[in-house]
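In response to reviewer comment 3 from the previous cycle, which asked for concrete evidence that the modeling workflow produces usable outputs, we include below a single protein chain processed end to end. The sequence was submitted unchanged, and the resulting structure tokens are shown without manual editing.
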Amino acid sequence: MFLDSDDWINPETLYKMVPLMVNTDLVGWNHYYNEDKKQWKRHVINNSPVVYELYNMSNLLLDMITPEFDVRYNGVYLGAVRGVWGKLYKREYIERFKIRFEENLKIGEDACFNVDYIRNIKKASFYNFYLNHYRVDNGSANRRRRDDIVEIRINLLREYLSRFPIGEDINANTCYVREVLSCVMNCIKKMEFGGSNIRFKEFIQNIFEYDSIALANSLKVDNGFYSVQERIIKELITKKSTETMTLIGCILRHGS
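The workflow returned the following structure tokens.
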């Protein structure tokens, strides 16, 4: 089990969850958000337990590219599905298949670890037990503004390209393009203000020079999967409308 250093679990977590590992290879559960003295629950894991076996394990894998996959297609919520916390793993699989974290990644290493693990198991089960406490920290690596955000997100896209049949499978394509859209918006919103304003403009002007982003324009996808905002951004990327993207980027940056 993994636990982030600023989070905590309920005392009964292992007592409750370890017995459930007897008939499955991965167990996941839900969590609370905690900020100062406030606590609230993440969205319910409906139809608990949600079980993945060989016939539908591909859905769980696609959730690692974009956790919206099972929600939008099947209405299935799985909690923080891409994180390694809130789960129990079987050490024998980790050692047998030499599953390790990608040290070159600053975000998304959890998702890649999960992909490598899930590809080697036969069953995964998710329960709506609220056992983890996730501390909301606006200064965390996933939330703070940073000037290296472009390299961070591009590296993650490359890792997905190495792990999924992008170009061959429409579901994988659809999820990958969704992650590209997330990458673009995330880069725009999290670039530092001040000295990096020039970097922001360079990113917008040169966005199509990144192979992992340009690839999105050539993939066959299910456009019905995307939200209205995502479709707008996708259309702007397709038409290479850097001027409009710059305007939207300014709005996002000042409104975030």
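The chain is about 45% helix and 15% strand. We consider this sufficient to address the reviewer's concern, and the full set will be provided in the supplementary archive.
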